[in-house]
Design brief:
4-stranded antiparallel beta sheet; 32 strands; mainly beta; about 375 residues; 1 helix
């Protein structure tokens, strides 16, 4: 038994050494890396952990003053925005320099933040509760802060064409169509059930809201501010992922072990694909060729060919995979393993597991940040 354990440990050390060597080779080969550089993950403690995705190592940790509720990547300024709940009706917003634990900005919030949306010129923060829902906008250039009160509980945000933001109100069972600059609300769209997530097409005037309680997705006309139809998907839907071209929307079904494919132009469910046991998180490759599903029930990630509608690879990862995130170039896929408190790193080309990195205990949020190596790094 002891000999077998030593062999297993030696094999693990050999694999880790090979992974580190590969990361070092990647960094040496690219003065301006194309692969994603940083992975931020939050967890119990509460704690924020920074992972170096190229060298496959923990680059820093930081205790947090409250439970992390949302993260967003400000690509234009190489900044991470982190929202935390510090009380039932209060929160805090912090900005960190890329690849660093150094704080650039901080702001106290008079509501509980639950969603962030980072644009090229501004950041939007939404949240609250039944009595103190709010949506706020921070203008990057002027530093001006604008806030509007909402009676509901804003749980998700999406940017839509035409200078609009779509806010999902989980408490009031509705979508708000909001002017992105003024935060004025030209329309409210009632829904049959509380929305948990929302996506907007990159063209036209259409959004889709996930309503888990009824196992349906609502297709919404933003121009006319009305529901076009409700689409039945698999039982207990958990997540949505939109193809980069906007042509299809994918919805994971936890209970059925399937993924529904929705034609966003026709507003129809056109296919149901097998994924694995209890799929949660989804990710679509930048080239529109691959759909990845985190199967929490069998501790795998399924790689599905969008063209063939079939699983072509099943990749073992850590325990309880939930969220997925791809780097900008799609070369690496990151898996948030909530059961084993680690982050799986998968090479999407050969579709194999490269490494498991230690995350914060009981990880809750994960964000992949691309870009150049930072000018400073504080552990």
């Amino acid at each position: 038994m002891a000999a077998a354990q030593q062999l297993t440990k030696a094999a693990a050390l050999t694999a880790l050494a090979a992974a580190l060597a590969l990361g070092a080779a990647c960094r040496a080969a690219h003065s301006a890396p194309m692969l994603p550089t940083w992975v931020y993950v939050t967890g119990a403690g509460p704690e924020l952990r920074l992972l170096d995705a190229l060298d496959l190592r923990v680059a820093g940790t930081m205790p947090l003053p409250g439970d992390a509720t949302a993260m967003a990547w400000d690509r234009a300024h190489d900044r991470l925005w982190l929202a935390m709940a510090t009380g039932p009706a209060s929160g805090r917003l912090v900005a960190l320099a890329a690849g660093s634990m150094r704080r650039r900005q901080a702001r106290a919030l008079g509501f509980r933040p639950q969603a962030l949306l980072a644009g090229a010129d501004a950041l939007w923060v939404a949240g609250g509760g039944a009595a103190n829902g709010a949506l706020a906008r921070l203008d990057y250039k002027s530093g001006r802060w604008r806030q509007a009160a909402f009676g509901g509980d804003l749980v998700a945000l999406a940017v839509a064409p035409g200078g609009r933001i779509v806010a999902a109100d989980g408490g009031g069972r509705a979508l708000f169509i909001v002017d992105a600059k003024t935060l004025a609300v030209p329309a409210r769209v009632p829904l049959a059930a509380a929305p948990a997530a929302v996506v907007a097409l990159p063209y036209g005037a259409k959004a889709f809201a996930l309503c888990p309680a009824i196992g349906q997705v609502a297709a919404v006309d933003l121009a006319r501010a009305g529901v076009l139809t409700y689409l039945q998907v698999g039982a207990d839907p958990r997540a949505m992922a939109l193809k980069p071209d906007g042509g299809e929307l994918y919805v994971s079904s936890f209970a059925a072990g399937t993924i529904s494919a929705i034609d966003t132009g026709a507003n129809q469910v056109t296919d149901t694909m097998l994924a694995g046991r209890q799929p949660i998180g989804l990710a679509v490759s930048p080239d529109d060729q691959w759909l990845f599903a985190a199967n929490s029930g069998d501790n795998t990630v399924a790689a599905i060919s969008i063209y063939d509608r079939k699983v072509v690879a099943t990749i073992p990862v850590g325990l309880g995979p939930a969220a997925l995130a791809l780097g900008d170039d799609g070369a690496l896929l990151f898996v948030e393993d909530r059961g084993s408190s680690d982050i799986g790193v998968i090479r999407t080309g050969p579709r194999n597991l490269l490494s498991l990195l230690p995350a914060a205990a009981s990880p809750t949020l994960m964000l992949v940040a691309g870009g150049q190596p930072p000018k400073e790094n504080s552990n």
